[in-house]
């Protein structure tokens, strides 16, 4: 009888850490991947996912490009035994077949257990990374984490209002863009006529986001804007066709246009970059359209740009 009580108590703790079967999955704001978090975990304050009260247990949830899932699956199948101290496994989830790893490591001087999982999504790969300090592994066991992973689900769409609400500014005019997708929740967002499966480049699209401190002197701003425009990812054979200071909603700004080619089909595109300078952060807008669609696309781009307002 004396042995049964402690074992029963431990069993209760482990069971209470498992997701309830009937519980609803929780989706971090702006993401299409969700799961039933373990008891004691709530939405994280500084990253998409969950954490416990003191922040020592972390569950990071994010989205990766759609090809990432296939790459991981191929790597698992090529080496099913794993490498070193990394244990590999897979399981069926409501989202599809998940591949996950378990390993021990350190966060600074603290011994931790780490888990990672990837699942397929519609136009994306869902990725989850879990870190649990060694002193919490008696409650957050391997089996508890496995059960949490097993509750993983995806949703096809995130409402436009939910995505825009995460951004640090208001977007009052979407200019009839059909596809709105956060690239990094609360950091950058894409407005597009295309989608992930067909590629964004053959049709007009915009990327809006804040960047860190930018140069304050006019000459430095010109050089900074041109260098940034020539380094836009995915645009090749770039050449600057126009670069000049402008006012954007009453603030100092800079407009730079480049011609280049983009996408796997080498689509000839014209790209405009607007930077609206601020004291601590600046707004950067990148807008691209095939050259034969440029005049009408540029009118839409300006409508979005001029409709961006500060929050509060």
Structure notes:
The structure is a single chain. Strands 2-3-4-8-7-6-5 form a seven-stranded antiparallel sheet, with helices on both faces. It has a seven-stranded antiparallel sheet with strand order 11-12-13-17-16-15-14, with helices on both faces. It is α+β, with helices and mostly antiparallel strands and 312 residues long. It has helices at 4-17, 67-78, 142-150, 160-166, 218-230, 294-306, and strands at residues 33-34, 42-43, 49-51, 58-64, 87-93, 96-107, 110-120, 125-133, 153-154, 169-171, 179-184, 188-192, 205-211, 235-248, 251-262, 267-276, 282-290, 308-310. The radius of gyration is 23 Å and the shape is elongated.
Task: Name a few traits of the molecule.
single chain, seven-stranded antiparallel beta sheet, 6 helices, elongated, disordered N terminus
